[in-house]
Amino acid sequence: MTEAWSHHFVQPSSQGTVAFRGALKLCTEEIARIIENCAGPYSGLALDTLQNRINDQSLSAEHTVTLQEAIKEVGQLIASNSVIVQHPMCTAHLHTPPSVVGIAAESFIAAQNLSMDSWDQSGAATYVEQRVIRELCDIYGFADSGGGVFTSGGTQSNIMALLMARDSFLQSHSNHSVYHDGLPDYSGKLRIVTSDKSHITVEKAAAIMGLGVKAVVRVGTHPDGSMVVDALEQTLQDLKNEGLLAFALVATAGTTDHGAIDDLVALSDVAKRERLWLHVDAAYGGAVIFSQAKSRLEAIQCADSLTVDFHKMWFQPISCGALLLRDNKAFKHLLHRAAYLNREEDELPNLVDFSISTTRRFDALKVFMTLRTIGTRTLGAMVDHLMTQTGQVAKMIAASSDFELLAPATLTTVLFRYTGGLDQESIDGINKSIRMSLLKTGTAILGETIVGAKAALKLTLLNPCLTLEYYR
Asked: Gene Ontology terms, cellular component aspect (predicted)?
């Protein structure tokens, strides 16, 4: 009976890889066909029709098909009617076309199915992640005491960072251990300070940590979306006057809408003076470190923790991120031991000691292979190209009488709206309708947000292969 199942798996023999080789070849052909022939970022198939066709697919044991048939079905029904991120008109989100080297690395990751929680589930992969983390610490200026771990992306990284910030503060403030005793009776006074343009995961982290979203205090921003330092100073003083305890300052290097980079030099000075844990969310803008604009990340090395997403401007397949710490010892706040996994006497490294995740993918391979092939110099040139192109697109929009540029372009996003001689009451509704019409017909995928109480459209330029002509 077991022989009848062998073709469902990759087996350690020449015959054991036949089905695997054939499946990958068919998948490659289907994906290539779809991308080569796509007319738009979405097929334009009516949404109710698409949903009904997917719901009509039987998942019962009585109606199974061959793998070859399933691959064809996925190609024709699902992949062909999913968003094509490689298309020039797919510009809504921080969602990049993945590099070929990243896709190649994914093949190794999926086929070997390693888990990064313990050495005996990963082998060489553990050393690769450690090597890449050391390189990242060097890139961002962390000393030998720095460390880090790969994550699923910015959300997980930000939550982990703020959890460690909270626990470090409570330990130093009153020698309190959340691990042993839960939240202290004064936990309602704890506050996290950030800008009004930083990521929603700050509130999410506060809620998960039991502090509630009320613990997040948002500070005003400049027109470009960066934090107003004077307003931060006043906010911190107000919190002191109210008897509240600020323990973390979250800076952003690349806000989601504006692409704003906070003044890291000034914020690091404030954090040091006020003895705040400084977390820098560089999920979006971390790759600027390789560009000619790297001075905008000056003082990033002063962060206590740093979020970097590689599935943004490092052009990796989703998901791929990392959390770096200036002092590796802070990971002690995440450490839990299990007799079957990470015994204290283990001689080999078990990376579960540094994460809230147990089972974890070998995502470090994508960054390892990218640094070995594309390299930081070329990555920096890509970032420079995108930033220059973004400025050019913003100027084109500002020069048009039919459009209004709503904020200065600072990274690779353009915030604007169509005005077309319309009265103010009509403009918001028209712009929302434009976005949905373009999406449903598969013509273009634009972002939608709010800028200064105005409905805004957003272009996010993250395809380095495009020329300015695509946006004219």
From this structure: cytoplasm
3-class state of residue 445 by DSSP: strand
Q: In whole angstroms, what is the distance from residue 149 CA to residue 325 CA?
A: 9
Quote the pLDDT of residue 2.
67
- Rounded to a whole number of angstroms, the distance between the first and last alpha carbons of the chain is 62
- For the four alpha carbons of 33, 35, 37 and 42, in that order, the dihedral sign comes to positive
Q: Which two tokens stand for residue 25?
A: 């070849």
The burial of 372, by beta-carbon neighbours within 10 Å (0-12 exposed, 13-18 middle, 19 or more buried), is given as exposed
Q: Please report which helix (H) or strand (E) contains residue 21, including its range.
A: helix 18-37
Q: What is the pTM of this model?
A: 0.96
**Residues in contact with 366: Cβ distance below 8 Å, sequence separation at least 6, in sequence order:** 101, 102, 105, 106, 109, 310, 316, 317, 320
Each residue of 140-155: pLDDT tens digit? 999 899 999 999 999 9
Q: Which domains does the chain have, with CATH numbers?
A: 2-83 (1.20.1650.10), 108-375 (3.40.640.10), 379-471 (3.90.1150.10)
Residue pair 259/410 in contact by the 8 Å Cβ criterion: yes
Q: How many CA atoms lie within 13 A of 407 on its CB side?
A: 29
The separation between CA 100 and the C-alpha centre of its own chain, rounded to angstroms, equals: 19
Strands 321-325 and 403-405: unpaired
Separation in Å, CA 378 to CA 84, 114, 287, 375: 24, 30, 11, 6
Strand 216-219, strand 190-195: pairing: parallel
Over residues 106-160, the pLDDT tens digits come to: 999 999 999 999 999 999 999 999 999 999 999 999 989 999 999 999 999 999 9
The three-state secondary structure class of 282 is strand
- Buried b / exposed e over 233-247, threshold 16 CB at 10 Å, is eebbeebeeeebbbb
C-alpha distances out from residue 196 to 95, 109, 252, 311, 441, Å: 23, 38, 11, 24, 34
